[in-house]
Amino acid sequence: MSDNPNIYKPIRAKLLEVITESPTIKTFVMEPEEDFSFKTGEFIELTVDGIGEAPFTPSSSPLETKKIEVTVMKTGYVTEYMHNMKAGETLGIRGPFGRGYPIEKFYDKEVLILGGGCGFAPIRSLLYSLAAISDKLRKVTLCYGSKTPDECIYKPYVEQLRNTPKFEVLRTVDIPDETWNESVGVATVLLDKVKVDIKNSVAVCCGPPIMMKFGTIRLLELGFNDDQIYLSMEKNMSCGLGKCGHCMMGKYFVCKDGPVFTYDELKNTPSIWE
Amino acid sequence: MKPKIEDFKNTRFFENFNDKHLEMIANISSIKKFKVEEIIFEQYKELSELYVLLEGSISLGISLPQRKRIHLSTIEEGQLFSWTAVFHPYISTAWVMAVTPVKVIAIDAKKIQKEINNASGLNDCEFGFKFMKKIAQTVSHRLNDTRFQLINQLSL
Fold this sequence. Notes:
The complex is a heterodimer.
Chain A: E1 11-22, E2 25-32, E3 43-48, E4 52-56, E5 68-73, H1 77-83, E6 90-97, E7 110-116, H2 120-132, E8 139-146, H3 155-162, E9 167-173, E10 183-184, E11 201-206, H4 209-222, E12 229-232, E13 248-249, E14 252-253, H5 254-257, E15 260-262, H6 263-266
Parallel strand pairs in A: 7-8, 7-11, 8-9, 9-10, 11-12
Antiparallel strand pairs in A: 1-2, 1-6, 2-5, 3-4, 3-6, 12-15, 13-14
Chain B: H1 5-9, H2 19-27, E1 29-34, E2 39-41, E3 49-55, E4 58-63, E5 69-75, E6 80-81, E7 95-98, E8 102-108, H3 109-116, H4 125-154
Antiparallel strand pairs in B: 1-8, 2-7, 3-6, 3-8, 4-5, 4-7
């Protein structure tokens, strides 16, 4: 959290580097003018002067307070503008907002993470946090799906993770090319491959709504209880304070009560996948 | 070579079957191996065996006229494939190829159908119900994966 007394006023952050992750996804490395910390899974509002504001969950380690990274897919007005920004330019940051992952509940458990597309961004932040407490965990398995090998992001990080004790990475793509030698199919096919001790596990699901829907169904089939499944919901968050109502989902404000929920909390909420 | 009961117990498909049922299936099954890029079966061919993947990785796909093979999905260890071998007209709807060296349990499709139909052997319908329930689950997974893939491709 920053010391900024006005929650609506962004703190300034200098863009240090722009990393191209895929043809449509870039990572923005920023240096806030003040120390800025967040818990994994919490989100920030990023301001582009004169253009607008959009919510992102940081993809960097919560243990890093001098720099913050967000990974952005080009999908709309603000994100398209951001994709043309260069190192040296300035952005604004508000937050952090919401409720992140209750990491302490993962102690002494196996953590199964299902992610897709740009959903790897918040997951990477979570993975950094889990790596920092790996002595307290049994195992971490990441199942990640993307459309094509080109769209697989964080390639160097994935290689690093594969050499980290207790961490396993499984990847799949919908459309393989001749260089691809991992799984083919949607992200949920990877759940057929994992061997987990369900009773002593938690599952985390983060990605496009369609993946979250089919992923949750498959996790329930595997035997996970509703309260063992953590979902990172992405809903049109705007104010970040539970005031504007843009992100309302049933009785919840995703920006304030989430974005991380257990499936148990959401299962009776209408239209959670829409 | 006939598979051992332990071979079945290590698969997700047969994890809840009892020893009596597994012994019966073992008696009508054999262990088969396939080399890298070997076609296990082609599309639109009559199937005489059901397979459970024990070791390795296989690719499932379809062929379209005038086009190369299209890879749709990878099947993982412990999964059953060629489920159409127990449904009339017993024709494969996809091709399956070994991506790595592969070891499978090959179950005689006609004999397992007899057991499912309770026409011989165990004289208990529990096996048939359990087996068909697992087949339905496999097909349900494929259907869900296909819907998911379709939505991805249509970028909805």
